[in-house]
Each structure stands twice: as C-alpha cells, then as structure tokens.
Amino acid sequence: MPKILVVDDNYDILQLLIDEFTDEGYDVILAEDGRDGLEQIYRHRPDIVILDLTMPVLTGYDVLRELRSDPSMKDLPVILLSAINASEGEQIAALLGATCYTKKPWEREHLLALINSTLKDAKNPDGHPTAKNGIDQCPNPTASSRPGSIDWRSNIGVLSVLAQVPAIRPPCLNGRDISCLCCAIVDLR
Fold first, then answer.
1. What angle is formed at CA 49 by the lines to CA 151 and CA 75, rounded to 5 degrees?
2. Residue 24 C-alpha from the chain's centroid
3. Residue extents of the structural domains in the chain
4. Which CATH number is associated with domain 3-148?
5. Residue 16 CB: number of other CB atoms within 10 A?
6. Which of 49, 67, 83, 142 could form a disulfide with 104 if both were Cys (CB 3.0 to 4.6 A apart)?
7. Distance (Å, rounded) from C-alpha 74 to C-alpha 72?
8. Could you tell me which residues come within 8 angstroms of residue 93 by beta carbon, excluding any fewer than 6 positions away?
9. Which residues pair with 4 in a beta bridge?
C-alpha cells in the first residue's frame, strides 16, 4: 500500500485529505508544517508527498529546496497543492523541481488521478525510482509549463513571488540561471 505524506497547516484540509486517501486504500501520514513534514519524510520514507507552499515554521518552498538538495530525496515525487493561481503554481513547481501542481480547492478525482499517475511514473520496471523530475510528469502537461520553456519576460509575477522567498535567492533558483531579471526583481524589494 503506497504511503502518502500530506503537509499542510490547515487542520480541515488535512482531515479532508486523510479521509479521501484512506478511502482509496492509501497509508496516510500527516504533517502540520514544513519542519514536521521533513521529519516525517526522513522517518517514514513516503512514496509521494502532497505539499502546501505557504505554511508557518518552514514553507513548502523550503521543504522542496531541502529535498532537491539531498541526493537520496531528489527523486521523491512531490505534488504541490496550494491556493496560488494555476499558471504561477505550475511554473513554480517546474522551477523548484516538484512533480506537479494542483490548485486549492481541488477536485477529488483530479487529485487522485495525479497521485496515481505520479506513483505509476515514479517507478521503473525494476522498482527503482526514475530520474524524472518536473512538471512533465503531470497528466496532459502544457509545453509552457515544462522546465526550461518558461517565457521569463511574460512571467514577472512568478519571479517576483519566488524572489521574495527567503529559501530561494538569485542567481540560481534551483540551478536555473536567470540572473539579470531575477536580480533586478530582488533589488526592487
């Protein structure tokens, strides 16, 4: 039975998701903030993480940065579930190395399809995690949401959001150099 870790600071959302996932036969682990989420990830080694971005103590941005910097966790599937708008969420997911993004409020069937698809894609025939990361693991991805294909000139809002996150500072944004534009945004703060 696959293990899902849900990391969200909203108790009501945690309860809804635990009910939905246990009804589908998943083993569910909960965490109420990013720090607790990281502890649960290293303690329980879940098959997939459902992660909110805006939380106290340690944000989802921080959690993703930590996971993607750890060679043993860089391939762990992470679905972002947050209230930011869909196009920004998809682009942030691509930049930070999340598997994909879906918006709150979510549709039960859509979220379950994302989880099932991601779990299926996360293991190769030998049972080992694949090296895939990024938005292209989501069902029906759009070309503009794939890593490396973002038009930075038309997405200044995404960059300004990312530039304000303490865990993410120019010039790299998870290894993708967008130096001049990103540095200009940080300098405007």
1. 65
2. 22
3. 3-148
4. 3.40.50.2300
5. 16
6. 83
7. 6
8. 80, 99, 100, 101, 134, 135, 145
9. 28, 48
DSSP-assigned beta bridge partners for residue 28? 4
- Residue by residue, DSSP assigns 131-179 as S--SGGGSSS--GGGSTT---GGG-HHHHHHHHTSTT--TTTTTT---H
Closest-CA residue to 154 (of 60, 56, 83, 87)? 87
CB 162 within 8 A of CB 174: no
Question: What gap in Å lies between CA 149 and CA 139, rounded to an integer?
Answer: 17
- Six token digits for residue 115: 């989880």
pLDDT tens digit sequence for 120-157: 887 654 444 443 433 333 543 332 333 344 444 445 45
Write the DSSP symbol of residue 118. Answer: H
Residues 4-25 have pLDDT tens digits of 999 999 999 999 999 999 999 9
The amino acid present at 47, given as its one-letter code, is: D
Q: Is residue 89 within a helix (H) or strand (E), and if so which, with residue range?
A: helix 86-96
Give the integer Cα–Cα distance in Å for 187 and 185: 5
